[in-house]
Amino acid sequence: MTSERESPCRKVAMAHSARMREAIGIDLGGTLIKAARVDLASGAILQSAVRPTRDGEQDADGLPMFVQGARECIEELEAESERTGLSVGMSAPGVASPHGDCIRWMPGRMHGIEGLNWEQVLGRRVVVLNDAHAALLGEVWMGAAQGCADVFMLTLGTGVGGAVMSGGRLLKGKLGRAGHLGHISIDWDGEPDVFGTPGSLEQAVAGQSLLRRSAGRYATTEELVAAVQAGDEEAAKVWRQSVRALAVGIASLVNVLDPERVIVGGGIASGASEALLRPLKEELRSCEWRLMDRSVPILPATAGSYAGVLGAVWALVRGI
Prior knowledge:
With 320 residues, the protein is an alpha/beta fold. It has helices at residues 8-18, 65-79, 118-122, 131-142, 201-205, 210-213, 221-229, 233-257, 267-272, 274-287, 307-318, and strands at 22-28, 32-39, 45-52, 88-92, 95-96, 103-105, 126-130, 151-156, 160-166, 169-170, 261-265, 298-300.
């Protein structure tokens, strides 16, 4: 996925990675910090470590406690390795800076992460990127998007996240916000979402809106799908509306991005599995522009719960 027009920064990163054999990936989540020491040749996870995130807590120096958690993970991973000072790929929620040195914007949670320079607090080379971006890169390296240069991913959970690879490059945009696919509008007259987008895909699909969409009957997608499988007609109607909205959103994004594949991940996708994919593909038959009679494959994410860790290491190595 290289080209003759590679940036100087990318070339430097590739030269540096050529001297590396292992690196550490860290996925900073709202509840847990997941970390792993990764073999760069094979993508194999050699060792993993987990710590609680402890969002909202600070240490004696005023740093967020998740910094200490990351440090502890690194110490544990390097204690079993022959190498120290390993470089780190950091996956975190929010909009990452164009240079990958910090998360620039993350209001409401992960208190203290905005502007935090991870190279300074960890004392080593660190590349920081958005968690959905990292999840897609993990799929490109070791999952369902292997070999793809043009692919996008939707992560379905409490919200709807996303990421895009176009021409072999992660699409970041001017400010780093590219890939917020859950905030495309599929209903111009719908209720605004958290960013002010009317009738967004997130509002129509995500877990956070399910109580409203089901008139208070279902609090989680698991409950809704279980009711559908038990033959509940009202539940089936709510689920079909959700799947239809997702299909319309995907069809619209396919028209814009022309991908080789679409990857669907996140808690809703893994929990619903075929209950989601089968009707989703049926709905797409009626709304997808099938150029030259070709449909775009819709595949479940396969890189697993450490996709963000792997994607963060991929970004570190490839200079994406």
